[in-house]
Amino acid sequence: KIIILDFGSQYTQLIARRVRELNVYCEIHPFNHLPEFTGDVKGIILSGSPYSVRQADAPQLDLTLFHEKYPVLGVCYGAQYLAQQAGGEVQPSTIREYGRANLGFIQHEDKLFKDIPAHSQVWMSHGDTIVTTPANFEITASTDTVRVAAYRVTGTDTYGIQFHPEVTHSTDGKQLLKNFLVDICGCSQEWTPDSFIEETVSELQQQLGNDKVVLGLSGGVDSSVAAMLLHRAIGKNLHCIFVDNGLLRKDEYASVLEQYKHLGLNIRGIDAKDRFLSQLAGIKDPELKRKAIGRVFIEVFDDAAHEVQDVVWLGQGTIYPDVIESVSVKGPSATIKSHHNVGGLPDFMKLKIVEPLKTLFKDEVRRVGRSLGLEDFILGRHPFPGPGLAIRILGEVTAEKVAILQEADSIYINNLKEAGLYDQVWQAGAIFLPVQSVGVMGDERTYENVICLRAVESLDGMTADWCHLPYQVLAKISNEIINKVKGINRVVYDISSKPPATIEWE
Ligand code: XMP
After folding, report:
1. pLDDT one-digit tens code per residue, 264-275
2. What would you report as the CA-atom Rg of the chain, rounded to the nearest whole angstrom?
3. Is the CB of 169 under 6 A from ligand 1?
4. Range of the domain at 451
5. In a domain? residue 126
6. Which residues participate in ATP binding (predicted)?
7. Boundary-marking domain end, from 127, 151, 184
8. Strand 158-161 vs strand 72-75: parallel, antiparallel, or unpaired?
């Protein structure tokens, strides 16, 4: 494997994804919390950083731990750090070095630049530049303005590059990373969804033996893929629980349950609609709604889990971005919403945790799911929040409002699918607004509620842009909702991006 040491760059996860796209397994570790460098480590990548090496509090690292023992590739800050530690000089750049540039000089004999064409375009993003290099450093590429765009420490497998190969604007970045991984580190590109499945299934069999595992399925991608992996490893010893909280999309509970049964999962569906709704009665505050739903879910799940005799493990669909230890640059960020229940094992459920997806990124989870035979019906779904429609009904949740929202949402989503837009949108949903407005239907004056449509493009939900859905599609959806859904006489479209808005309204 490859170890990526993170100095806090926004691009670190992208480096990891590129390495994995080349079918090489890698892990991200913070610079100040180093892993053990054991036999299966083949090379090290040092990331960029929001810091400058000239700052007094810049991240520091004991290079002797791996330097000249493993091949090293320093990227941006990583490259500057290596140069500075070896006696080179790093200074603020005199001109802005941000954006596209071309490598006017490339030393093609250098292993790192094998098969990289002359004038290759690279992406620069730095405020410092290496002005002098130590005597044993050889400059292997330059741009018009950056003399030390890449270097090699002569006679070693230590390399530095000032540009970002992980960003797609670096046109040959993938080739460069491949050169490092394959030719320099000697990695074999064998880490594929199938090899992951094979390895994970056999590890799970070892770890779990004849033990029983319970797992809560949500209909989402992560829990579904986690269930399929565990199912392949231990079959009927995996007991899945799928709770109907009454806050799912229209017909979702029945169709998803059917799909899971069809996949051969040992699954129990629990209708707890009334229990959730009664606990939500009278609650208007979004955070209190989330808490009530979380609490009832744990109660319902715990009851069901107790019915499985001698269960030892709790399976969870945790994925890599949830567990990567982040380098804290600006201190812990404020809680905006009390999101995802990471590590949410209640004290009274004294089960051991098994998380078969905790080394995978989201796109890898999908690929593994596909290899396991899951269909787009599950893999292609938009993300859907755990508290479901409860946080898309502003204010108090009632059965009547849920029913109205389910109808409107279903018209919306079906139209997106019919128009071929569903897969282009990252997340879409309808929101029930607690305001009434005046309308006219026939000769009648109406005074009814408003439905808001939301559709966003995003990579990970951290930032999002509203989608420019075609007017004809919006017009059709609006017509259909107003004509068919009793209680709604107005439809609006949310044109706010995140930040400053959030994706959900609550
Ligand atoms: P926001 O509204 O914070 O949403 O922009 C970002 C992503 O998180 C989802 N979300 C939640 N997911 N429990 C969840 O499991 C929650 O309480 C919750 N709140 C928001 C939201 O759907 C979007 O994908």
Report:
1. 999 999 999 999
2. 26
3. no
4. 398-493
5. yes
6. 218-224
7. 184
8. parallel
